[in-house]
From TrEMBL:
Signal peptide span: none
Keyword Disulfide bond included in the entry's annotation: no
Role of this protein: The lipid II isoglutaminyl synthase complex catalyzes the formation of alpha-D-isoglutamine in the cell wall lipid II stem peptide. The GatD subunit catalyzes the hydrolysis of glutamine to glutamate and ammonia. The resulting ammonia molecule is channeled to the active site of MurT.
Organism annotation: Lentilactobacillus rapi
Top-level taxon of origin: Bacteria
Quaternary organization: Forms a heterodimer with MurT.
Binding-site list for substrate: 130
Gene encoding the protein: gatD
Protein name according to UniProt: Lipid II isoglutaminyl synthase (glutamine-hydrolyzing) subunit GatD
Keywords, sorted A to Z: Cell shape, Cell wall biogenesis/degradation, Glutamine amidotransferase, Hydrolase, Ligase, Peptidoglycan synthesis, Transferase
Pathway: Cell wall biogenesis; peptidoglycan biosynthesis
Reactions catalysed: beta-D-GlcNAc-(1->4)-Mur2Ac(oyl-L-Ala-gamma-D-Glu-L-Lys-D-Ala-D-Ala)-di-trans,octa-cis-undecaprenyl diphosphate + L-glutamine + ATP + H2O = beta-D-GlcNAc-(1->4)-Mur2Ac(oyl-L-Ala-D-isoglutaminyl-L-Lys-D-Ala-D-Ala)-di-trans,octa-cis-undecaprenyl diphosphate + L-glutamate + ADP + phosphate + H(+); L-glutamine + H2O = L-glutamate + NH4(+)
């Protein structure tokens, strides 16, 4: 069977700090190894998001200025994005993108930027401080450890239905207080990890691809498909 997956690179022209685009390159690399054809396109300002057209969304990080522009435009995509997420669509959201999937982000200058509230977290500001550096976390469900690099002033607090991507072993994570990093909600993976995260942690990329394939091909018993098992890391 020929499997295909379509990726929406949400605001890929504006929200792409630290080469977060690399996450799409990794998804494509692993999809090819699985014999899955992956396509991607940028959906940005003044462009409609059609939840029926895509299987995965990648939403990268950004500086406060870009986020202030995206915060306004993303409100026009709120219903489609929320429907996609509630229908178990796969999402990888990094830093600034992560923040804007929640209720709001308070920028370094105190400006409150509205998110879409598709996830129940919120992000406050730090006083003249940023979390910058390497981070190591451990996912408590799988025991997998993930490595990345963080650079954010926002401090995020998780809400209803959200569980952390991992427990912080080294670094700061969501807020430097509760030892959580990132968030998982349905098939949404959120993180502060740049890196890009999927290049350094391709277990997560495989989870994203398999989740998307299971949702798109419900009758194909995806977990048993030998061809889809990508064992080696890179
Ligand atoms: N790297 C990022 O995406 C930064 C997000 C946001 N501008 C912050 O400083 O918290």
């Amino acid at each position: 069977m020929a499997y295909t997956l379509n990726v929406c690179h949400l605001y890929g022209d504006l929200m792409n700090t630290y080469g977060d685009l690399g996450n799409i390159l990794v998804l494509n690399y692993l999809a090819e190894k699985m014999g899955v054809e992956l396509t991607s396109e940028v959906i940005s300002l003044d462009q409609a998001f059609d939840p029926d057209k895509y299987d995965i969304i990648v939403f990268g990080g950004g500086q406060d200025f870009e986020q202030s522009i995206v915060s306004k435009d993303i409100q026009t995509k709120k219903a489609g994005l929320t429907d996609f997420i509630e229908d178990n669509g796969s999402v990888v959201a990094i830093c600034g993108g992560y923040q804007l999937l929640g209720h709001y982000y308070i920028g370094a200058n105190g400006e409150k930027l509205l998110g879409i509230g598709a996830l129940d977290h919120y992000t406050d500001k730090q006083k003249d401080h940023r979390f910058i550096g390497n981070v190591v976390i451990e996912n408590e469900e799988t025991g997998e450890q993930y490595h990345g690099f963080e650079n954010h002033q926002g401090i995020t607090f998780l809400g209803k239905g959200e569980r952390p991507l991992g427990k912080v072993l080294e670094g700061h994570g969501n807020n430097g207080q509760d030892k959580t990093e990132g968030a998982i909600y349905k098939n949404v993976y959120c993180t502060y990890f740049h890196g890009p995260i999927l290049a350094r942690n391709n277990q997560i990329a495989k989870h994203v691809l398999i989740n998307a394939l299971k949702r798109k091909y419900p009758d194909a018993d995806i977990s048993k498909q030998e061809q889809l098992k990508v064992t080696e890391t890179f």
